[in-house]
Amino acid sequence: MTSFASLPQEIIDIIADKLTKTDLTQAVRVNKEWTTSFTPSLWRELYIVDRTINDCFHTPESRSAFIRNSLYIRTVETTDPELAVFFAFRHPSITHLSSLILRLTGQPTRSIIDIVPSTAEMDTVQGIDVDGNAFAILELLKKNRNLRSLSLHEWCFWNKDGKEDLFLPIIAAISPTYLEKLEVSCFPLDEDTFDNNNNDFDDEEFEEQMKGLRKATAAFRDKESFSALKELSILGSHFGRTDLTWLAFLKLCPEVERICLGALDEILFLLLPTLLQLACPKLRRLDWTNCGMDSDEYIAKLLQASKLGWRELHLPRMIFFGGEAFAALVQSAETLEVLQIMGAGQRQELEQNAVLELLCSARNLRRLEGVADGQRDILLVMELSVHAQNAYLERIDGSSEGRSWVMGPSVEYFQLQIEGVPRPDVMYRQSGLELTIQQTGLDFSLRYIVQQWIYTQLGRMTNLQELILGLTDYNPEVYSYYQFDEVVLSNLVLLEEMMLRNGIPTFHYLSLELSLASGLSLLAGLKELRVLDVRMTAHNIRVEELEWMHWNWPKLEKVRGLESDRGWSMDRDDGPAIRADVEAWMAAHPRGIGCSFYL
Length: 599
Prior knowledge:
InterPro entries: F-box-like_dom_sf (IPR036047), F-box_dom (IPR001810), LRR_dom_sf (IPR032675). This protein is α/β, with parallel strands linked by helices and 599 residues long. 30% of the residues lie in helices and 12% in strands. Among the domains are: 1-42; 384-471 and 507-599, no CATH class.
């Protein structure tokens, strides 16, 4: 009979990859063969985060096991500077790392304990003095020449007293052959630089910085580039200044396709877009996690940093996103496959239906994503939206109807607010009185014509899986900002009224009805649709529509926002009956809405 240990190591590795840390711990205890087979996988990854090496290996037995099995370690992530120094100077077997993530919380604060493998010798302690993290990092990089992923945060680049910056020597020490992902943090460590009153370069200082940058770039002239590096992350801070000479390392990154950026100080931001165009000509994806820029122009410059045109843009909340930034965004419309904007606002509003420029150009789009739940707030004055009637009436070259959107079967996720639908049926009661929703300029005779035109645009997305038309949830801080009392917060009607009085839209009235009468059947081709989101919209989905969805959208799992007491409608009296019928239908279809769940 073939034993488990006789299986090829490749098969054992595949099995081990499916097991959790707990599973592996139990597996090595089964017998000697299993111990031999699974020990390498058990020790392949070492995570010491928000703890120290002594916290994790505080007994002679655990220290001995650590020393004995450390040759299997391939991935290290730690915040402990003592561990980094120990690996660099006291552990010769750490030479085969493929991933190293160092988010060190400070400099080594004491001498490093030399852990000996022999427990019989107890804990022989020998102190070694190390002049800060930077020298330990240099040593680690010399020993590990096969790194594929490297993340170095701010404390990695300084000596013990914080006076000597070794950023560029550390970058130069990285083996260029295998590195695929590099993340560096450029936070200034000198506390004086966090003084916002001391955050501007004068001309003389700026020129000195530029001279340093040119000199540092020249020093890399003969250095081999990172031939496999595809992903680069630069984290910074707009609370302090970054040494511009650090940017010289971009010369080594000509193959980078994805750039990830954190908050950047203004001077760094001014130079970075131009340097990225020159040094990283293959950029196709931008992940921006934090925008500290207070200028539409600066945002626009970053959005122009790709020579080939962006394929993916993941953009943060940007209060100062305006006309220039949007124009720069549209320049990449034809190459865009993924666009995510987590919220934007501007002092000077964009032209109405500016988003149409994207919808009529982004023919390769796969995913359009706007503000996420919990992100909406009172400062986000622009979300991805279209005024339906005006879009329909916009003519080009004498055409008889609006501009056609170019998205088709490639779209899988689509989030857009469809506004400005003529809805003569919509009325809202506030404090017991009828409150007619403002529909200035809307032509009620176009109620169904406009909706059918929108459905026609959406109907081309035949591989669409999620259609998000509803309002996302507000950031809870919005409520605390207005200091609503507990009585208001506990009553949804009162809360909605208070929000309306403060100019905060909590409900979308002039929305698509998604009723058969309005032309829902034009979406019959969306056979892959799994999720429909109509939260807080005046939709007219009844049992008839659910039956239609059941047969025409076989994979539909749920409709978010299906519940409604029709409080927005003039025919409020039939609201409870409609809701009861819908709830009964849903109760009869507990596994989902589409017919495929019941075949």
